[in-house]
Design a protein that fits this description.
Blueprint lengths: L6 E4 L4 E5 L9 E10 L8 E6 L2 E5 L12 E8 L5 E9 L2 E7 L14 H9 E10 H14 L7 H11 L4 E4 L7 E8 L6
Antiparallel strand pairs: 1-2, 3-4, 3-6, 4-5, 6-7, 7-8, 9-11, 10-11
The structure holds zinc ion.
């Protein structure tokens, strides 16, 4: 009997098999959520429990059940290789239990071509050009609030300064001109051109 390609048999070490990403074959997977679908055969509604890090939720919705007529189970795993979230599904059907590992879609590459959200923040919330400056913590806090609203990781102030410099090559970080201890970003300020 052949082994499905999403597992690697390990008879050598007493472990029966290692689950691998159905998309890229990588073997480092992180469990994200578990869904249980319980019902009597052909019942339209039953018990559906979803367990995530946030807790457990129950309803009667069986629309995501991998089994058309009976019980099912889904475990979602994020792959450390391609970052896709794939779903291991067990489906009971006519006395058999089917197992499938449904590949997820990897997120788009965060490569050089992808615009950094910091650049979008600057376009939306800032004015750029010589003569402008803003204290670093003020701009960072505005960025953090903007990012949080969008569910983005705002990172720390140093990372923000690096990303800002990459997004806006003219911007520099300098000690304030009056000799104060505060640092400012030069070449940018908060606001819109209309309110200049
Ligand atoms: Zn993968």
């Amino acid at each position: 009997m052949s082994t499905p390609r999403f597992v690697r048999a390990r008879p050598d070490c007493g472990v029966p098999a290692i689950l691998r990403c159905p998309g890229c074959g990588f073997e480092y997977l992180h469990q994200q959520s578990v869904e249980v679908f319980e019902r009597d055969e052909d019942d339209a509604r039953g018990t559906h429990v979803t367990v995530t890090r946030a807790g457990a939720a129950a309803d009667a919705d069986l629309s995501g059940n991998p089994s058309e007529r009976r019980q099912g189970l889904k475990v979602a795993f994020r792959c450390e290789g391609c970052w896709a979230v794939s779903t291991l599904a067990l489906a009971q059907h006519k006395g058999h239990t089917f197992v499938e590992f449904l590949p997820g879609v990897p997120p788009p590459d965060e490569d050089q071509d992808a615009p950094d959200p910091v650049a979008e923040f600057v376009r939306e919330k800032c004015v750029t050009g010589p003569g402008h400056e803003v204290r670093c913590p003020i701009l960072f806090n505005a960025w953090a609030a903007w990012a949080d609203l969008r569910g983005l990781d705002h990172g720390d102030p140093n990372a923000f300064a690096r990303r800002l410099a990459a997004a806006l090559p003219g911007v520099v970080t300098r000690q304030r001109g009056d000799g104060g201890l505060a640092f400012v970003f030069r070449g940018v300020r908060l606001g819109t051109a209309a309110r200049a």
